[in-house]
């Protein structure tokens, strides 16, 4: 079932957005800077006039002028190649609400390759472009899931989006330990990138509608968009080979919902809105980095579902999104520390083929 496997660290990249209107209006100075449009270092000052700055290094750092195409080319294009080889890959977007997670993941959903199209539409566009040029038989399926308050909602099912889907259950794939799937979820067969865009727009609207109707903030939910690709190839000695690659694109809840050390913040605790999944994600990362004996995957829906992406057989990338402005410095530092810690997680990716 698997071929060679080598341990690799999780890839961690940071994207700094431009200052927004509010930050400019309030004259909140820029305290996080990058060396140009892209590089590996990020410089943080408590005040713009400070002579000293603290430097953080990541696998990649994108400055406010980096566009969607650049993020795709540098981060996602190599991952798509891995998916086509039969690996499972996951990209997480992590950060405070308003820092650009959805912009990075979805961006403009009206076209697959427009200037503002994000990772999901661009990936689909490139995926179909590549598959159509190959001789092999293939199929592409997508699913779109939301986790809110530890309840799963299928964003592609025709059901009422305000009702959590009782039929959705997480089950463990016994053939692939740590690879958990959701039973009962729509996995839609798609034939073109445009097909998926239409589906995605519906799913994305469904998320918004449900949030508005129930007075919930969509910044407290996690969204997992999954693309599964089956490719059938014939080897030179006439044998059929089936490769199955999977890409999870995860837009996490706003990181302000949990505090710096992964502990819940007072405000969140009081309001009874502890985000169990985000909290557990932090604990899982800490336990993996500290090489703990017990990794608390089972304590949240998100970490159960994505267990394999954290210390498992999946190739994983985290895109941490931050604001450059002083008024958000505390949250940005918390995001940078979190992302920096995650760099130490090691996965051992394996190809799925039979
Ligand atoms: P989040 O999903 O983290 O809450 P959003 O993706 O909704 O944040 O971004 C908040 C706003 O900032 C949106 O209007 C988005 O278009 C804009 N934005 C975010 N990142 C960038 C960027 N790198 N360049 C330009 N605009 C951005």
UniProtKB/TrEMBL annotation:
**Where do the annotations place ATP binding?**
95-102
Locations listed in the record: Cytoplasm, Cytoskeleton
Q: Output the Pfam families linked to this UniProt entry.
A: Kinesin (PF00225)
Q: Name one GO molecular function term.
A: microtubule binding
A biological-process GO annotation: cell division
Give me the Gene Ontology terms describing cellular component.
Answer: mitotic spindle; nucleus; spindle microtubule
CDD domains reported in the protein's UniProt record: KISc_BimC_Eg5
Recorded protein name is: Kinesin-like protein
């Amino acid at each position: 079932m698997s071929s060679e496997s080598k341990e690799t660290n999780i890839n961690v990249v940071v994207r700094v957005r431009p200052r927004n209107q509010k930050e400019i209006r309030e004259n909140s100075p820029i305290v996080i800077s990058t060396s140009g449009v892209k590089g590996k270092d990020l410089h943080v000052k408590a005040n713009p006039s400070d002579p000293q700055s603290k430097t953080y290094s990541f696998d990649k750092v994108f400055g406010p002028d980096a566009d969607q195409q650049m993020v795709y080319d540098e981060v996602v294009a190599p991952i798509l190649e891995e998916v086509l080889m039969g690996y499972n890959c996951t990209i997480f977007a992590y950060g405070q609400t308003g820092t650009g997670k959805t912009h990075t993941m979805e961006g403009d959903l009206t076209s697959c390759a427009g200037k503002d199209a994000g990772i999901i539409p661009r990936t689909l566009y490139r995926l179909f472009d590549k598959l159509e040029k190959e001789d092999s038989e293939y199929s592409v399926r997508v699913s779109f899931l939301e986790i809110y308050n530890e309840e799963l909602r299928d964003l592609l099912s025709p059901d009422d989006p305000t009702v959590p889907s009782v039929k959705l259950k997480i089950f463990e794939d016994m053939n692939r330990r740590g690879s958990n799937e959701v039973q009962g979820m729509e996995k839609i067969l798609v034939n073109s990138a445009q097909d998926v865009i239409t589906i995605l727009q519906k799913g994305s609207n469904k998320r918004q509608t449900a949030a508005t109707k129930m007075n919930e903030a969509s910044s407290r939910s996690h969204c997992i968009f999954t693309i599964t690709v089956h490719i059938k190839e014939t080897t030179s000695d006439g044998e059929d080979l089936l490769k199955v690659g999977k890409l999870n694109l995860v837009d996490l809840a706003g990181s302000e919902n949990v505090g710096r050390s992964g502990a819940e913040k007072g405000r969140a605790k009081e309001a009874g809105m502890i985000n169990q999944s985000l909290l557990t994600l932090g604990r899982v990362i800490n336990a993996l980095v500290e090489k703990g004996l017990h990794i608390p995957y089972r304590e949240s829906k998100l970490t159960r579902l994505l267990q394999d992406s954290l210390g498992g057989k999946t190739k994983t990338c985290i895109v941490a999104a931050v604001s450059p402005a002083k008024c958000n410095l505390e949250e940005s530092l918390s995001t940078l520390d979190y992302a920096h810690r995650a760099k130490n997680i090691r996965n051992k990716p394996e190809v799925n083929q039979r």
